[in-house]
């Protein structure tokens, strides 16, 4: 009986002109026995990619936000609206009281924003994404662990000196802390990392982290253009935030006249003062000798 059903199926496939491609195959298989349908399961599969947390970040230890990915659907599956719930630990026990995100708007699409009223710096949080009452992703953290400051601002540079050969120069780079970081009262202590490179290079040179908002950069070539950028992180915890806007440093090549002038000018003064000193000493010597003869 199965053989006759198979022959009938093949006949329908050859004579059907109302369907084409995958539609024809699906229509034919729908009439075939289950044993034939099982050899082509791809027509029935239904997959989706559930939302996942991408990052949680606090720029100044007073607020924070969490972001997640969009759901990717294939087929007819629909997870429904995504909601974020959170809970905080009270002393040594979790409250187990899950509350919904207080603000889905301020931090942008697919995000939840916690202002200072909902932020406790030393109390651990757990958050979860839910859809239709089921959990699709979750994570736990303390606010101090997710601190990533905003970029430093107002980068500028000044020339310190040029080498006697006129080939290299030293500069001082300065910047200001992120405006929302309360460093004056010590609520945040920031550590900065400066990176620089020639414009046509791809690899950045990294300087050692510092606590001040200025640092000298030595031995730059005077006929090159450089890019400088700075980022910061909370000292002893958290991760580096985004880099500042790039600062461009152009050091024009010094003229030969300038180099020679810089090189010989101090020696000229030394020679003049040296001759003057020798003249005075010779005058004193002759005067003393004349005095002895008179005595």
TrEMBL record:
InterPro entries: FN3_dom, FN3_sf, Growth/epo_recpt_lig-bind, Ig-like_fold, Long_hematopoietin_rcpt_CS. GO terms for cellular component: external side of plasma membrane; extracellular region. This is Growth hormone receptor. It is found in: Cell membrane; Secreted. The chain crosses the membrane at residues 264-287. Residues 1-18 form the signal peptide. Residues 151-254 form the Fibronectin type-III domain. Pfam families: EpoR_lig-bind (PF09067), fn3 (PF00041). Belongs to the type I cytokine receptor family. Type 1 subfamily. The lineage of its organism: Eukaryota, Metazoa, Chordata, Craniata, Vertebrata.
